Predict the 3D structure of the following.
Amino acid sequence: MSLFSWLPSTDISEFLSSIALDKTILRSVQSVQDSFAVAPSVQLSLEQHQSSSSSSSSSSLHFDQTDIDATASSRPTISPDLSAAFADFQAALSDQMFAFQSEISSRMHKIEQSVCDSLRDQADIFKNLSQGARQEVRTLDDVHTIRFNEFRKNVLTQNASIFQGLADVRQVVDAVNAKVDIMAKRLTDIQKDAEATKEALSHQLLEFQSQHSKTL
């Protein structure tokens, strides 16, 4: 008899659904990581533009108003604030992880409460059997002994299944916590990459503006 045989099927379904949320969070992290991976292409485009401007300036130093307007309109477009976008995503993901951990804690509390109720019922049954055995010990001693031993055997088997089931649940929770730690580390790495990319883009933009001012 397994741990989940005496639990309502609704509780089991809800518990498994809450576990599935972990996969959704992992996919969200991977999606954001992929989106930040596109940033180097902006740097390449900016470097190509700088190279083109440099070669153009070496060939001729005479510009009219049309050339100046064309050059101004060709400046690279800067992407939205990466820090703000990352902060919004991190807040949403933190809310999801908090809800997920709360759901896990709730499921564990229900399981432990059910185990305590089961053990309390077993203690009451043992007490009643012991009282009945003392009252009829002279006439029904053998019958009660046989029944008691059979019942005790069944209870021990059920307890073994319960504790094994609890061990399985705790193992799942430990695995989920390990994944949450991995996601937190990935978020930290993504944030560092985003800040580095933002700083690099700002630096390159300043260099481009400086070179453009010199050509004017």
